[in-house]
Amino acid sequence: MTVNHHVRVYRSEEELPRDEQLAWKIAQVAVDPVEVEPEVVDMIINRVIDNAAVAAASLTRAPINAARAQAFSHPVSTGGKGATVFGCPLDQRTSPEWAAWANGVAVRELDYHDTFLAAEYSHPGDNIPPIVAVAQHVGSDGHALVRALATGYEIQVDLVKAISLHKHKIDHVAHLGPSAAAGIGTLLGLDAETIYQAIGQALHTTTATRQSRKGEISTWKAHAPAFAGKMAVEAVDRAMRGQTSPSPIYEGEDGVIAWMLDGKDASYDVPLPAPGEPKRAILDTYTKEHSAEYQAQAIIDLARRLGTDNPALRDPANIASIVLHTSHHTHNVIGSGAGDPQKYDPTASRETLDHSVPYIFAVALQDGTWHHVDSYTPERAQRPDTVELWHKITTVEDPEWTRRYHSTDITEKAFGGRVEITLTDGSTVVDEIAVADAHPLGARPFARENYIRKFRVLAQPVLDAAEIERFLELVQRLPELTADEVQELSIVAKKGVLASADAPKGLF
């Protein structure tokens, strides 16, 4: 059974025993030797495939080039073999924290991997790069890696269920630092005291503002989770060397909750597995069929359906207005409620466009499809009929969609909305969608074959056919992999692909 751990702020003169602190409770989950259930193992494999797919599609994009160049500016650290970097030969290694950095940027760049939304937002697949990097560095086998990934997913999802960061404009990667540190602790078989210290350091160093996802969204959006993963690796290293961290990091009078979140009167109930309870949180998460913010997934499917069924809706001359009634988050973060003029700017960056649901709805409606590159090109964004249609689209918050968005009942939790299209002749078209087609409760839930298809489509331009098959055969045996085989858990680009990418110079 799941146990709700009550968390509140403690004054300095109040006694808070270590074993009642949230960081210690998380560490206890990390050290629990419970085995990973078969369906969880199956989903972990799916998500390792998914991460590799979206990384392959990003291999020559500018943020990945920069992160990769930074990583290889540093030698492999002592104490291990180092770790692989997506796209590079398997024998080309860098230090694990820098591999976590480079691979984390590659995974997040297109905003195209898995998601979990509750009190907070998250991409739990961001746990995979730092944990795999450490596994390769120290020579862990597949069984240990699976257990570690189950921990990383469990802790991030549990924190996301209970503690809102965005409400206080703190970026969601503040839950990732602790989860990745906990996962690495499981991987290495560390004791609870060491993991506890690493969690505190990881949290302390990964709290930052949400400005990275506001206004003119920059390339840092992809770097933020990679930075959290890198900090988690470094926090574990420091903790293993006996270094301590601010304590209590969550509950302290001058801690994260008191000054960055809900304040001195705050309290939360964080659900954590009881001792011996399997770590199943990954099964509550879902991936993306489309390369866009998760709240846009269902909206893309709705727009595709509407445009295909009624092509007249694609012509802005026929449209008076389009209003999307949706949740508070969709309206205020990627909708017109954000108040960001950039969300209606045809010259905006890709990072901004994939956080503009008016733009996304317009393009999906007109094209009847969505493509991770073609849907964002300047030519596509600046097409006059698209701009005209786009500027007729607004969002409004609907309390019922907000309630469903925050529901703890998985059967009614929804990330979609209702669209009302008013035509120039005065007639209306009304339709709605609750969850994306690829969602576990959607029209076409993603299964192994879908993850493999996504990998093949995204990898084909940059990986040789033999490399695609090698990786897929390897990853699907994940829990049985030897330590030597874990060393090969990466993807190698076709000859010349990385050489064609710009390798910017910096300080290192």
Q: What structural class do you assign from the helix and strand content? A: alpha+beta
Oligomeric state of the chains in view: single chain
Low-confidence stretches: none
Estimated radius of gyration: 22 Å
The CATH H-level homologous superfamily of the largest domain: 2-methylcitrate dehydratase PrpD
Q: How is the biggest beta sheet arranged? A: 4 strands, mixed
Q: What fold name stands as the CATH topology of the largest domain?
A: 2-methylcitrate dehydratase PrpD
Residues in helix, %: 40-55%
How many structural units, i.e. domains? 2
The CATH class name of the largest domain reads Mainly Alpha
Order of helices and strands: EHHHHEEHHHHHHEHEHHHHHEHEEHHH
Per DSSP, the total helix count is 20
Strand content: 5-15%
Q: Walk across the major sheet and give the strand order.
A: 6-5-7-8
Family: Belongs to the PrpD family.
Organism: Microbacterium commune
Domain MmgE/PrpD C-terminal: 290-478
Protein name: MmgE/PrpD family protein
Structure keywords:
508 residues; alpha+beta; 2-methylcitrate dehydratase PrpD; two-stranded antiparallel ribbon; 8 strands; globular; MmgE/PrpD_sf_2; MmgE_PrpD
Commentary on this structure:
With 508 residues, the chain is of the alpha+beta class. The chain folds into two domains: 2-284, 2-methylcitrate dehydratase PrpD; 294-433, 60s Ribosomal Protein L30, Chain: A (2-Layer Sandwich), CATH 3.30.1330. The protein has helices spanning 22-31, 38-56, 62-71, 96-108, 128-138, 142-162, 176-188, 192-204, 220-240, 256-260, 297-309, 328-334, 350-353, 357-367, 378-381, 384-390, 399-406, 448-459, 465-475, 483-486; strands at 2-8, 116-117, 121-122, 267-273, 319-326, 393-397, 417-423, 428-433. The strands form three sheets. A four-stranded mixed beta sheet has the order 6-5-7-8. A hairpin with a 3-residue loop joins strand 2 (116-117) and strand 3. Helix 1 (22-31) packs parallel to helix 7 and helix 1 packs across helix 8. The radius of gyration is 22 Å and the shape is globular. The N and C termini lie far apart (49 Å). Residues 20-268 form the MmgE/PrpD N-terminal domain. It holds the Pfam family MmgE_PrpD_N. Residues 290-478 form the MmgE/PrpD C-terminal domain. This is MmgE/PrpD family protein. InterPro entries: MmgE/PrpD_sf (IPR036148), MmgE/PrpD_sf_1 (IPR042183), MmgE/PrpD_sf_2 (IPR042188), MmgE_PrpD (IPR005656), MmgE_PrpD_C (IPR045337), MmgE_PrpD_N (IPR045336).
